[in-house]
């Protein structure tokens, strides 16, 4: 068995990471731009979210087909369980977050853009639903900061404290 994830899994992991950074940055930094730039910033955010959704589903399908490479030395069962729980939360978050965002955008009832294209929208806005979904979207996005931080901290702890190959399994191969 290989000691690393496949090139495809590694590429999807790091591409999702970059897209998450851009999606979060678009929302966090939008106040620094003129209001006239907001539609472009929103389009970047939505386009990143849609890309993340597609890549997370693809990554999940690949993960179901290809087993994870072993961690050496093998961690305690509790650590393995915590890792599985953490990954489940990340998968659920980065599938649910874009889905909620898409349903929210559709139900605004006015044109919106992704990838430079006008996307379909409801004939009439459902603002009660949009307000509710927006609250969930923001809550999940804030939870995402913590999950991402814990994920990165766990990878670094595995590498520097427990000195296993957890982090190295997801690093790109050297040529």
UniProtKB/TrEMBL annotation:
Membrane topology label: Multi-pass membrane protein
SUPFAM superfamilies: Transmembrane di-heme cytochromes
The keyword Nucleotide-binding belongs to this UniProt entry's keyword annotation: no
Main location: membrane
Cell location: Cell membrane
Domain Cytochrome b561 bacterial/Ni-hydrogenase positions: 5-172
Family that this chain belongs to: Belongs to the cytochrome b561 family.
Keywords assigned: Cell membrane, Electron transport, Heme, Iron, Membrane, Metal-binding, Transmembrane, Transmembrane helix, Transport
GO biological process: respiratory electron transport chain
InterPro entries named in the record: Cyt_b561_bac/Ni-Hgenase, Cytochrome_b561_oxidase, Di-haem_cyt_TM
Name of the protein: Cytochrome b-561
Signal peptide: none
Organism encoding this protein: Kluyvera cryocrescens
TM annotation in the entry: 41-62, 83-106, 143-162
GO molecular function, one term: electron transfer activity
Cofactor(s) annotated in UniProt: heme b
Pfam families per UniProt: Ni_hydr_CYTB
């Amino acid at each position: 068995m290989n000691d690393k994830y496949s090139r495809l899994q590694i590429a999807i992991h790091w591409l999702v990471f970059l897209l998450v950074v851009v999606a979060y940055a678009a929302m966090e930094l939008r106040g620094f731009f003129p209001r006239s730039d907001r539609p472009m910033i929103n389009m970047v955010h939505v386009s990143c979210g849609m890309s993340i959704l597609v890549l997370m589903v693809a990554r999940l399908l690949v993960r179901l087909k290809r087993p994870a490479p072993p961690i050496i030395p093998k961690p305690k069962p509790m650590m393995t369980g915590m890792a599985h729980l953490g990954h489940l939360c990340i998968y659920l978050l980065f599938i649910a977050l874009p889905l909620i965002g898409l349903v929210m955008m559709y139900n605004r009832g006015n044109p919106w853009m992704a990838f430079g294209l006008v996307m379909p929208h409801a004939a009439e806005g459902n603002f009660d639903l949009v307000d509710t979904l927006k609250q969930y979207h923001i809550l999940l996005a804030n939870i995402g900061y913590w999950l991402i931080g814990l994920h990165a901290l766990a990878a670094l702890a595995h590498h520097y404290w427990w000195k296993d190959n957890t982090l190295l399994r997801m690093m790109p191969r050297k040529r």
